[in-house]
Amino acid sequence: MTVAERKYISEFAVNLCSARWQLILPHQLNAGSKITDPVSLEISENCHIYLICKRPSSVFDPNNFSFDGKVVRGNIVYKIGGVETYLPFELPFCLPAGAVSLELAPYPCREFECKNAKGEVLTYFPAMALSINGVISNASLQKLEVLYVGQAYAEGKRTAIDRLKSHSTLQRVLSDTHYSFPDDEILILTFEYSPYRVISWVDGTEKKAISGEKDITRFESIMDNPLSKAQQISLAEAGLIRYFQPHYNVVYKDSFPSSDQALLDSCYHLDFSALIVEIDTEDLDIYLCSLNILPNQHHIAQFNLVDTSVRRGFFTFIGKDGKAVEMPNVISRSK
Predict the structure, then answer these.
(1) I need a surface site. Which of 67, 141, 147, 301 has the fewest CB within 10 A?
(2) Mapping DSSP to helix (H, G, I), strand (E, B) and coil, where does residue 229 land?
(3) What pLDDT does residue 269 have?
């Protein structure tokens, strides 16, 4: 097998990493409530990538629930294939200011509520949160199947939450899940992405590759012409779609990356040879997966942006035996 030559002595990749996040239940989108906490509001305004996910629905067991003023105790219940599983829990809990009681919400008992002396609900705690914040460790509840990946930016004026309020695909997902998977629930994760990093390395063994002033000028061009925020968001979306291949996505699901896709024009112009998109849910203590991707808390999607049959890629190296060695799980450019 002939090994393609490296074009430049140095190679560069765009690296996009998820940062802060928010978890949203579909009914919260139209609840009419507004975010008042400054930190939560800032995160909301900067989350432009969203994932629509599915997992077993969890509720509180009304026959085993108590609060002694310091600890909430009981069971949460979920079903898989109609078979119920009961998980005991203990949650240290203090009533918020103004609250005088803690009560289990009426059927289907998805949450408990903190009420004031007038019986008004001041705040609530959903059963699903017990497996998100680490109170309950259960593989079935901590595994979220990614059904759809989307983005909202519009010059930074439109957030993921704004987009989801009028999202036809979300309504379709909710309808399909209600009909075909009645034991499951839909959760929405929104993510902020940090400004991209440029990853570079130099192959000093390549004698024919372009080096010297031309290579330095190329590096300076990359640093002097940064990708816009909108471009970064679009790259993150496309990369996650191609990686997870969610059921409800169509665009980019099988074709990304390709030389004729406009969102890659800047990458090709600047001569980036790779894209690396990461998404991390370790803080949430959950595992993202899809029909094609195994559950994990930290996913790294790696893409060759060049045709590796013509030019050696970012992830391709030459072993001691002179044969090409490519890093595993790298997605090649579409022909």
Answers:
(1) 67
(2) helix
(3) 92
How far is the C-alpha of 39 from the C-alpha of 238, rounded, in Å? 28
**Would you give the distance in Å from CA 291 to the centre of its chain?**
15
Q: In what order do the strands lie in the sheet with 58-67?
A: 58-67, 71-80, 83-92
Q: Which two tokens stand for residue 272?
A: 């980036």
Q: Please, what sign has the CA dihedral across residues 90, 94, 96, 99?
A: positive
What residue has token string 């560069």?
12
Write out the H or E segment, with its range, that includes residue 228: none
Q: What is each CA distance from 132 to 11, 55, 95, 191, in whole angstroms?
A: 39, 12, 21, 16
Give the count of alpha carbons within 13 A of 107, CB side only.
Answer: 1
What pLDDT does residue 1 have? 46
Q: Rounded to an integer, what distance in angstroms lies between the CA atom of residue 289 and that of residue 280?
A: 12
Low-confidence ranges of the chain (pLDDT < 70): 1-3, 30-37, 154-158, 322, 335
Which residue is it, tokens 């203090």?
94
Question: Is the Cβ–Cβ distance between 53 and 289 less than 8 Å?
Answer: no
Backbone angles phi, psi at 222, to 5 degrees: -65, -40
What DSSP assignment string belongs to 167-187?
A: -HHHHHHHHHHHHH-TTEEEE
Q: What angle do CA 147, 149, 155 make, to 5 degrees?
A: 160
273 and 219 Cβ atoms separated by less than 8 Å: no
User: Which residues share a beta bridge with 149?
Assistant: 51
Do residues 275 and 303 make contact, with C-beta atoms less than 8 angstroms apart? yes
Task: Name residue 112's amino acid.
Answer: F
Q: How much is the pLDDT for 308?
A: 83
| Distance (Å, whole) CA 18 – CA 20 | 7
For every residue of 283-315, which 3-state class applies, written as one string?
CCCCEEECCCCCCECEEEEEEECCCCCCCCCCC
For the entire predicted model, the pTM comes to: 0.91
Residue 111: strand pairing partners: 126
Identify the pLDDT of residue 72: 96
